[in-house]
């Protein structure tokens, strides 16, 4: 099989002597697929060389690490990559699929965007050409995510012998949102994805894709089969990641700050779709309404830096910092800090938060799946309660065991947090056990098998 | 029949001697229905007394004007009315149905919103009670628009003998947007509208309503019949409004400023959904790309003040003023002002613009119908070209005769404006004639008859 994704299984870093060392790449798709594809002779992973060191390593012909994945990294033009990744993928398609546009103002498709779109097409062309040139006859090709939505149609034209699946890890926008795109963009994206079998984390996004494709291509247009298949963390991999001195140290540091108080945790990228500000507003309302909780609870927001090349993300970070500061200014006492805002890029810290939390708040405005909602229950050691947005794909699987959050309703969110904090030990135990079962129900291996089976139709 | 709408057929103004004079109300629904309901003994119009003078006139028992519509005006509590109208109707439902929320930030459903929602319910209750108390057995009731979406279910419960239609003049949001509302709101709105026959300006909004109702109420929920029926201006009424000295004076004033240049006109409320800023950006690009047009064209933006009690509207007005100023700063010469920004609340001025325009730009991001797109061709005397957004309901009827605008794509919008400005006289004539025919195809009387017929099922 050939896996095609923008991010690859490793990143290279330049050593002092001019050689390069490989490190594992980051992100949910990489974490899920790495262990499955390692040491498989029949699997190739095509990905972009992301940064300068990656490009230099590829151009220098650095071999991929032994015992790892057979990878082909593409040394793309940096300017074209930026147009593809920052402007079109993250600046437009991400916002579109997550419903984040402030439509009176954005998007504005101007001449600069038309050039960026050419960059998007060009990068998709490079990925497609790498597959067209290298794939054995009749091979199965698993194309990942919205950055590479044009690859399926390019493959259908250049190599009709291949079996192609495209899997989307984000939500997919509905038919009134897809009309926001210029027609040349909407038509290219929908006709490409309609040319193959497409997968989504939930039936909700699959349905939205089909409706959008028919909106753009016409009611009678042929649209390839769709399927819904999500994946959770690999429990063994997650357990191994937690059983490290770094995580132990972070747990100890957190315990020292929290003491015997109850701990609400959120763990996210600093990302507009994650709804971080309303989370603080709900917590503020919780403290206002429940005097008994003051000094008895801490909210740790563990937020990794994200997409800081986009001005929207820097603006949102300011709003998040202000919202956190407002809560602390309003409620803090001499020995109680109600909100801990931790913006380090530190995976051990994030895992420690999941381990120690009494309540995990996952309240995105929209989310393709949300892996944290599945990792949290597996990592947690305190029968923690999951407060989960009904707009996250994971909610479809977990809704019986979590407390449901309506992400735009801070009154309802505050009530869910309160219910979680006062829940009896017995109910916490029952729910936590169910969450653990559900979180293990779809291991990455099964998800990969589903894609392979769907590709063969 | 009983017509129920928030705005009524007249407004009262207090005279110096303490008595009240009645003046015709404003708005598309009022203009359409007034001539049809006047002098009809079998018609009653239930509406709110909007301002202080209206309330005072109603409380003083002022009779409605003779020869007019038999109206029942409700003197609602001003605070409750503000919650109903500003906070819920204009601040939430308008934004929702037009897709205007910046979801990372707004809406935020807090405790203040819960109180406002009670105000919305209470005002709907007042309207419903007025009908329940006054309607003859088996009467037909035509409820108008999103401000009164709960009235149908209240009538179904209180007076099951009545025949009720609810007609929506805005777009209706789709199923992923309706999930933004708190569940108690979404459920109340959808179940009420599903309890009667509902009308919309186009099948697109009817389809969106049905999908939203099933999303909220369940796939198997019963949803009443829907129908699509739009209306255009009454040609005779419009002609009479134009044939006045005030309009002549405004035409002369406009001619003096524009001279022999080509004139692009837009005529809108100062409203986020109207997409005024991108219109100026497209015009700026037009002047940049076509040197020959400089000094040869003027863009008159005729913008009535709107909803200035909402901070979003004041912020948007600033952005509009800045965008207009940028074009003038960039291109103006000693005897050419590229943009005329006219913010007077002056109907004669707006009609004069429609009469004199060579190109009418109507580029909303979303619009239930857009009456200007239908009035413009009837008022115009120069075979003017209509550049119309495909997101306006009127586009469904006019798309063969207008030039289609993709409202988010300023490159495409600039190209449409250019095509309009250089179009041959022959093609302009053909298109203008077709537009006039289409604009007269659905007079208000036919629209009213459709509602009455649908109510009787």
- The number of helical runs of chain A is 18
Low-confidence stretches of chain A: none
Name the largest protein-protein interface in this structure.
A-B, 44 and 44 residues
Main sheet specs of chain A = 7 strands, parallel
**Class computed from helices, strands and strand pairing of chain A:** alpha/beta
Strand order, sheet with most strands of chain A: 5-4-1-6-7-8-9
Helix content, binned percent of chain A: 40-55%
Portion in beta strands of chain A: 15-25%
Extended strand count of chain A: 15
CATH class of the largest domain in chain A: Alpha Beta
CATH homologous superfamily (4th level) name of the largest domain in chain A: Glycogen Phosphorylase B
Task: Tell me the radius of gyration of chain A.
Answer: 22 Å
CATH architecture of the largest domain in chain A: 3-Layer(aba) Sandwich
Q: What does the oligomeric state look like here?
A: homodimer
The shape of chain A is: globular
Number of domains of chain A: 2
Per the CATH scheme, the topology name of the largest domain in chain A is: Rossmann fold
Chain-averaged pLDDT of chain A: 95
Describe this structure in words.
Chain A has 457 residues and is of the alpha/beta class. Helices cover 48% and strands 16% of the residues of chain A. Chain A has two domains: 240 residues, Glycogen Phosphorylase B (Rossmann fold), CATH 3.40.50; 205 residues, Rossmann fold. In chain A, strand 14, helix 15 and strand 15 form a beta-alpha-beta unit. The model of chain A has no long low-confidence stretch (mean pLDDT 95). A seven-stranded parallel β-sheet of chain A has the order 5-4-1-6-7-8-9, with helices on both faces. At the A-B interface, helix 4, helix 6, helix 11 and helix 16 of A face helix 4, helix 6, helix 11 and helix 16 of B.
